[in-house]
Input
Amino acid sequence: QVQVVESGGGLVQPGGSLRLSCVVSGSNFRLYSMTWYRQAPGKQRESVASITPDIKTIYADSVKDRFTISRDNAKNTVYLQMNSLKPEDTAVYYCNTALGGLTWGQGTQVTVSS
Output
């Protein structure tokens, strides 16, 4: 069974930065379009950023120009560099394929607060 493990979250002040990592087990990672999602308390899970196998990227309007998604196929890892963080970015962040086809991981908590 393919496993997904997210890490890198934490508490950061507004305007700060964090880098999230997501490691996906198995040999097919390079074939997946990968997406970072987030879910804030009381809200539905939403997609934040996606990256295709040929490194095309797409971002939600709310994070455009602040977040950068990247991948390292040799490490089966997808990253999310988050800059200029805002309190409204507070959420649990998850990664999965663009279709949400893998078993969801535990996520990593990001809290933006002064």
The CA atoms of residues 17 and 83 lie 4 Å apart. Strands lie at 4-7, 10-12, 18-24, 34-39, 46-51, 57-59, 67-72, 77-82, 91-97, 108-112. The longest strand covers residues 18-24.
